[in-house]
């Protein structure tokens, strides 16, 4: 890695080789719709497969490595629309799937922090790029301006339609604006990325609650189609005695109040019930409101919490405790105010098919903890009947609602999920609306295959430690409740973290016709990734199945690189005496149907 | 009748050894392997403080000799680290890329020092004393040094402080009220501890917190939030222990603070047991889950795990509620250790 402006000898040689290869290589590009290629991309690039929006993660990380922050931002925006927002608050399914975090491989790449880095570090001169289709003359009402509504409106505008968003609150953004605290998501940044969507010709009408100020029926009459993306607004309740006491809050209402600049009374000791992001946001907000002891109480284990390690660390750093394997029985109070909670201990049981975990109360294990306030952050459910009683056929796997011309998107149809899933859902619904309005499928997904003459990274990058996010000190957090806690990477940190990415979009293959079976590649491979294969079965969907390996030379039909185990270290590529290992860059892209 | 069973135990402490020796007593034919990342036979952790003070040598730490394992045909793999568990193929992946198959596994990996989240940026500046590997080379540094800084306040911290002051060293203790995890020391408790430690001559700081640690030419400059600045040859962190279970995450085991086990020491996966400080168990007598259980209970749990692995159905018997004496302050704990029986072990 670069120290004092200098590269190590190994890196210098690698970079010189890299430049040489690029200068002399002729790129061959092909586009494929073969299911085997889709299957290969899905298995080989676990981060992208885990991202509901299918963000080209290795692609944008490579751009950051080349200091092309604007291009990295656009690669993100093409898939997830709001990279600056998601770079701060995404639930990061990609990092859970990252190959670098697999057993023996170390710690996952800080993908989300890099997403934020490209948003932060791009030039002030950066221009957003949109490929606009010709206007269709069709108008679409979008109910709700949360992530799903914004994503749907964005794509509908791109496709040439005229979206009009009806937002029940004063400001757009939905949960992003009202559910997430400002110390995690600055509002100026949020508004910039919302405005990038509105600039495409999206009309925004705020303080317009569908079901109250305007009916769904009116919208269906005035617009060619309607997308309902009203989110989840009905809080789940504890269903225990004492829930009506003063100082018992539900998580979303509590966060709304905090985000509106109010100061709900929390007292010294706060008990938060819940295990998700909202619960952590409530706990961290309670600390900023002056609480001395804040603990989250969860029914399952610490490992089952639906938050990532960064959030867990920040919560611990701010002194928030976690009481696991407990379930509230009743909230106790005096003179109408909370005095404490009675809990029961739980244990984990697996039931059902496929097995799922549930917490089961342990008999005679009740205990009491004193507290001054209770925040129940158990998530929300969609309030379908608030919008209309017409919905009878909502299906979480389909944008259709059973009402002609009316579609649904995001949490409203799937139930409470996360921002990236809502955005992906909004985009899927926009395509369904477009098909309904134009009777044309206008986009297709293909696999782009490009010959790649280098391995793009030296082995030494595999041993770089994950770069921690910069944060502000505790006293600064308490002094200004809205001050953003994470301060982002500087360019050197972004470069260092980008070097950690294996670039799983590079597919390594051995040409069996040129291979002399010398096994030099097997000898140098640091992982069990080069396999002697007897057969490669093909699945029913046309993708390749798991390799059938053999240890008998007379049964070997091929020596094959298992791209699911390969860490793209390039050792095999460097050592092959026959130069029979090729590298191909694979990428999922959207093309026009007539292209 | 000979068998081909291979029982593997991760951890070479009291729980792991009790399990291994129980297995051997009841199954003379099976292969038994203990894997430990430490490069030393089973030793007494409580004696580490005396070892650091130069009062006992390495041999005196030993609880069992290598010969005892040889005679019982228990294989020791020392200095080897388990990277992860693959329950489907019933194998362990070691960090040096070797796979070890097991028919049944007992996890007795113990606990490691707790690094406070606020101290993460200064982790490289902190010295921990939880295992023999930590103390290699430390004895000389302590003998050569004159000023030391202790941050924390668990049981070992005060023992360690007294050891240093007895050696004539200058010591500053910054008392951290949440060091005796999961208990929080109240103001009265802190005052009593400060008073009781006064005769040691150490500088005791309370109602304060660490701000920064700066390393310069092998020395450390510690600054507190209240602005107290102290130079030290070493900065020690004594803020309790947490179960050593990172290698077991992601394999399907139910893990909370520690690996969840029932009263027979069975985990959520077949063929895998856990015992000792890495295991988390519900104790009906005290109505809570517990992880840190102390030496005698670790031995009991190891024995129960060994017997149950062989098909029996024993339940661990908790010793009951006890009190810890933290420098004159009695703390009612939810831990299992029976202090009277546990003394000097």
Describe this entry's structure for a reader.
The complex is a heterodimer of chains A (595) and B (345). In chain A, 32% of the residues lie in helices and 21% in strands. Chain A is globular. In chain A, helix 14 links the parallel strand 8 (269-273) and strand 9 (293-297). In chain A, the strands form six sheets. In chain A, strands 4-3-2-5-16 form a five-stranded parallel β-sheet, with helices on both faces. In chain A, strands 7-14-8-9-10 form a five-stranded parallel β-sheet. Chain A has four domains: 38-129 and 457-499, Orthogonal Bundle (Fumarate Reductase Iron-sulfur Protein, Chain B, domain 2), CATH 1.10.1060; 139-233 and 382-441, FAD/NAD(P)-binding domain, CATH 3.50.50.60; 235-376, FAD/NAD(P)-binding domain (3-Layer(bba) Sandwich); 507-592, 2-Layer Sandwich (Alpha-Beta Plaits). With 595 residues, chain A is an alpha/beta fold. Chain B has 345 residues and is an alpha/beta fold. Chain B folds into two domains: 6-110 and 244-342, FAD/NAD(P)-binding domain, CATH 3.50.50; 113-241, FAD/NAD(P)-binding domain, CATH 3.50.50. Chain B is built from ten helices and 23 strands. In chain B, the strands form seven sheets. Chain B has a five-stranded parallel β-sheet. Chain B has a five-stranded parallel β-sheet with strand order 9-16-10-11-12, with helices on one face. In chain B, a hairpin with a 2-residue loop joins strand 22 and strand 23 (329-332). Chain B is globular, with a radius of gyration of 21 Å. Chain B starts with 5 loop residues before the first strand and ends with a helix. Mean pLDDT of chain B is 87; it is low at 334-345. Chain A binds chain B through residues 103-104, 301-303, 313, 316-317, 321, 324-325, 345, 347-348, 350, 357, 362, 364-365, 367, 468, 474, and chain B through 83-84, 93, 95, 97, 117-118, 120-121, 182, 249-250, 254-257, 260, 268, 282, 284, 287-289.
